[in-house]
Amino acid sequence: MPQFANTYIWLFVRRASSWEGSVIHLITGKGGVGKSTVAASLAWKLAAAGRKTLLVELGERSYFRHIFGAEISVNPVFINSHLSVSRWEGEACLREYIQHFVKVEKVVRLFFDNKVMKALVHAAPALKELALLGKITSGPRRVGPPLPYDELVVDAYSTGHFRALWRAPVGMAEAIPFGPMGDQSRSISQIIKDPAQTQIYVTVIPEELPVTEGLELARDIQNELEQTPKIVLNRWLESPLTAEQLRPFAGHDFAAYLGQILDRQEGALAQIQTRGLTVLKLPWVFSDAMAEKVRTLAARLEAV
Ligand SMILES: Nc1ncnc2c1ncn2[C@@H]1O[C@H](COP(=O)(O)OP(=O)(O)OP(=O)(O)O)[C@@H](O)[C@H]1O
Ligand SMILES: [Mg+2]
After folding, report:
1. Cβ 205 under 6 angstroms from ligand 1
2. For the chain, is the Cβ count within 10 Å smaller at the N or the C terminus?
């Protein structure tokens, strides 16, 4: 056998045996609580620690371009030596997913260009969710284009849509007992249910409604994915004075207002702690520059 063929086989075997795929981090929470900011900060922290990290946003519009000042598309954009950012869109992932089963590009094109199939794809959103989670878990499952990263951080939709995301493969794994679609769904479910491979972060802010919604989601994750998410308590107001120290000044409007905020956030923290969940507390950063917020929060995440 020629020397180059030996080298090629050696490299292939080495990659197949040493690379186990990335650790997947899924960031969710109620709309507007800071999911994208937390996802970017976590990715920044991991990259700063020397882990090769891909930060992914889902959907048609990019939020990360405002943070990193670069156009974000499916091809990863290099932010620094360890951090890249990418945007994955449902239909493109579905095309890649179908290609995995069908192999022949011409047939895939026929499938997608067919009016009936187009209507089906739009009417059955679970297909896109399945394809997205299929891509997110493709590293450890060793299918599709390689994702050579140590960590994959996904800004993974808000509460309701996030439920739809994981319920797609979990539901299909139960509904389809055999065949390639059932097998794929089972292997995807297995990875998102395994805390060694997938970590889930529910972001909340210290107010009653987001915490209640976040805790309901955490309970569903525990029941249906059989793993316990971490709670990211974001936008915590770090006051130089405690609520107790403010009490003597309660006659002053501002002191009374600040005291109320501090009481409310302590109440929110207690509400989470009664559930025995791990809490990562992140401060309210007062800066207009998004990149600055991300760097500050990343440094805080390093400390926890
Ligand atoms: N810890 C923080 N300190 C200061 N500002 C923050 C913090 N976290 C988030 N923000 C700000 O709050 C706003 C909402 O944050 P972000 O866009 O990350 O939320 P989201 O949950 O991703 O929102 P959406 O549901 O719309 O996707 C942004 O202006 C962001 O800069
Ligand atoms: Mg967002």
Report:
1. no
2. N
Q: Which long-range contacts (CB under 8 A, 24 or more apart) does 65-70 make?
A: 66/290, 67/36, 67/37, 67/40, 67/290, 67/291, 67/294, 68/40, 68/291, 69/291
For residue 222, the 8-state DSSP code is H
- pTM for the model stands at 0.88
| H or E, element range at 28 | strand 23-29
Give 128: exposed, middle or buried? Use CB within 10 Å, 0-12, 13-18, 19+: buried
**Domain range list for the chain:** 20-233
How many whole angstroms from its chain centre is CA 99?
25
Residues 6+ apart with CB under 8 A from 116: none
Q: Which tokens in the block code for residue 300? A: 């805080």
Q: Are strands 151-155 and 230-236 parallel, antiparallel or unpaired?
A: unpaired
The answer to whether the CB of 153 is under 6 A from ligand 1 is no
* Element (DSSP H or E) covering residue 229: none
Residue 83's φ and ψ, nearest 5 degrees, are: -120, 130
State which amino acid sits at residue 174: E
Distance 293 CA to ligand 1 centre (A): 10
Q: What is the pLDDT of residues 110-159, one digit of tens each?
A: 666 777 666 666 666 688 888 899 999 999 988 888 899 999 999 999 99
Going by their DSSP bridges, the two strands 83-88 and 77-78 should be labelled as: antiparallel
Sequence-distant (6+) residues with CB within 8 A of 168 are 126, 127, 129, 130, 133, 185
Residue nearest to atom 19 of ligand 1 (CA): 34
